[in-house]
Specification:
Its main location: membrane. InterPro entries: AAA+_ATPase (IPR003593), ABC_ATPase_HisP-typ (IPR030679), ABC_transporter-like_ATP-bd (IPR003439), ABC_transporter-like_CS (IPR017871), Ectoine_EhuA (IPR014343), MetN_ABC_transporter-like (IPR050086), P-loop_NTPase (IPR027417). Keywords: Amino-acid transport, ATP-binding, Cell membrane, Membrane, Nucleotide-binding, Transport. This is Amino acid ABC transporter ATP-binding protein (PAAT family). It is built from 10 helices and 10 strands. The protein is an alpha/beta fold. It has 2 domains: about 5-115 and about 195-280, 3-Layer(aba) Sandwich (Rossmann fold); about 125-195, no CATH class. Strands 6-7-8-3-9-10 form a 6-stranded mixed sheet, sandwiched between helices. The protein has a 4-stranded antiparallel sheet with strand order 2-1-4-5, covered by helices on one side. It starts with 8 loop residues before the first helix and ends with a helix. It binds adenosine-5'-triphosphate (ATP). Adenosine-5'-triphosphate binds near residues 64 and 66. Adenosine-5'-triphosphate binds next to strand 2 and helix 2.
Length: about 280
């Protein structure tokens, strides 16, 4: 059934004056189409529609439990939708295929889609028994079939970018939380993903280590055109790096727009209340 023009993500963005970084006219890289996620009776995402253009950096903000992390976990196929479809690059994520005939093809396809997406978690999830170098090179070598030399060279470049090139032979336990998180960022980028998902990447860090990690991410935002979806409670960071901010409450988008609008002149009471609580609290 055709949607009313006012209700489409494109119409909402146009109304909000959202700037498009590139591929404005082209197909979205990510599209959520009436996505529902339920755990038992708890509806975590409620017919969610939004899309992300290639190269767009989007921050997801909103109160605890509003469904932000679930969106990233669905994209990583760590969870499956209850209803609706998630499209990546014009293809549905495999678990949304309903027909049994397609399940096998879907699994192969799901692996291909997954390779395009890197994620950095709140807990760094490095392998403690591997050096920093091996943490970064294992997936490119085993999943992408990259040669060891090439993977090593890329690891050295990425560690340089995150300011840790001297720690290439260290083990994670020898590093601070902030350093471990910077290695986790390098590891995600080693797969050359099109999409980088960041899930509250500074929440587990001591306050004095937060700035170093955010600076690395700001630099990635400045120097690459990677598509970025970031769940964050760091409002200044969201303001600095985002093309667009989505404000969530109870599994729905209550407001979206460029950071100047969301942080400077929010239209919705719920957004104002949330920002007041975060910024004043
Ligand atoms: N595996 C699960 N089983 C049952 N309920 C879950 C599961 N994962 C998440 N939930 C529920 O889904 C809801 C949304 O969680 P989600 O982590 O997406 O919220 P969030 O907006 O990211 O919150 P926060 O900012 O606290 O991380 C919460 O009510 C949570 O309890």
């Amino acid at each position: 059934m055709p949607q009313s023009d006012d209700n489409t993500p494109a119409a909402r963005e146009a109304a909000a004056g959202v700037p498009k970084p590139r591929s404005e006219e082209g197909s979205p890289l990510i599209r959520f189409d009436k996505v529902v996620k339920r755990y038992g009776d708890n509806t975590v995402l409620d017919h969610l529609d939004f899309s992300v253009q290639p190269g767009q950096r989007v921050s997801l903000i909103g109160p605890s439990g509003s469904g932000k992390t679930t969106i990233l976990r669905l994209l990583m196929t760590l969870e499956h939708v209850t209803d609706g479809v998630i499209w990546v690059n014009g293809d549905p994520l495999s678990h949304e295929y309903k027909g049994t005939d397609l399940v096998k093809a879907g699994e192969q396809h799901q692996r291909e889609v997954r390779k395009k997406i890197g994620m950095v978690f709140q807990q760094f999830n490095l392998f403690p028994n591997m050096t920093v170098r091996r943490n970064i090179t294992e997936s490119p070598i085993h999943t992408l079939g990259v040669s060891r030399d090439e993977a090593d060279q890329r690891a050295a470049e990425l560690l340089d970018m995150v300011g840790l090139k001297e720690r290439i032979d260290a083990h994670p336990t020898q590093l601070s939380g902030g350093q471990q998180q910077r290695v986790a960022i390098a590891r995600a980028l080693a797969m050359r993903p099109e999409i980088l998902l960041l899930d509250e990447v500074t929440s587990a860090l001591d306050p004095e280590l937060v700035a170093g990690v955010l600076d690395v991410l700001r630099e990635i935002a400045r120097t690459t055109d990677i598509t970025m979806l970031s769940v964050t409670h760091e409002m200044q960071f969201a303001k600095d790096v985002s093309h667009r901010v989505l404000m969530f409450d109870k599994g729905k988008i209550v407001e979206e727009g460029p950071p100047d609008q969301i942080f400077g002149a929010p239209a919705e009471d719920r957004t104002r209340e949330f920002l007041h609580a975060v910024l004043e609290g």
